[in-house]
Amino acid sequence: MIVVDSSTHAKNAVQWALTHTVQNQDLVILLHVTKPCNKVEQSIKRGVTNSKIPEFLTRMKSLCQLKRPEVCVEVVVVEGKEKGPAIVEAAKSQEVAQVVVGQKKRSVTWRLMVTWAGNRAAAGVAEYCVQNASCMAIAVRRKSKKVGGYLITTKRQKDFWLLA
């Protein structure tokens, strides 16, 4: 399962997963989490569909099929107030072996705040998934445009630099 949205972090995670973890004949699930709509919003949006989200998911699915035609690709959209718990629950219900989440670089201020606050600080979505998923969860972040490679975070390893 690869968590996708319109960010470059998610696109990097998809590219990394397709080249490093996906095997022939695997089933790749592209998971997109949306905020739940209330009844008023649903009645307003009933006649009007947001074409950007299906188009984005369709493009991501075709990219996966183009890079790895031997794998089966499915798109799953779930609603959740918070992304982290929604991803963990979707992974559990789909009984996936691995979750790949794109991770963005945090500012120095944010990292200092987390260090000072300890466990009381709110972790990001990727960190939440890595710590709480029942399956193997991997947070992927591109090292930099100049240096290349990826920083990989799992439960056992934090910011492991994979030059590939």
Can you characterise this structure?
Helices cover 40% and strands 23% of the residues. With 164 residues, the protein is an alpha/beta fold. Helix 4 (83-94) runs parallel beside helix 6. The chain is globular and about 45 Å long. The two termini are 21 Å apart. The model is unreliable at 43-52 (pLDDT under 50).
Main features:
40% helix, 7 strands, globular, 164 residues, 6 helices, three-stranded parallel beta sheet
Strand content: 15-25%
Largest sheet descriptor: 4 strands, mixed
Q: Give the terminus-to-terminus CA distance.
A: 21 Å
Question: With helices defined by DSSP (H or I, 4 residues minimum), what is the helix count?
Answer: 6
Total count of strands: 7
| Low-confidence residue ranges | 43-52
Largest sheet, order of strands side by side?
Answer: 4-5-6-7
The helical percent reads 40-55%
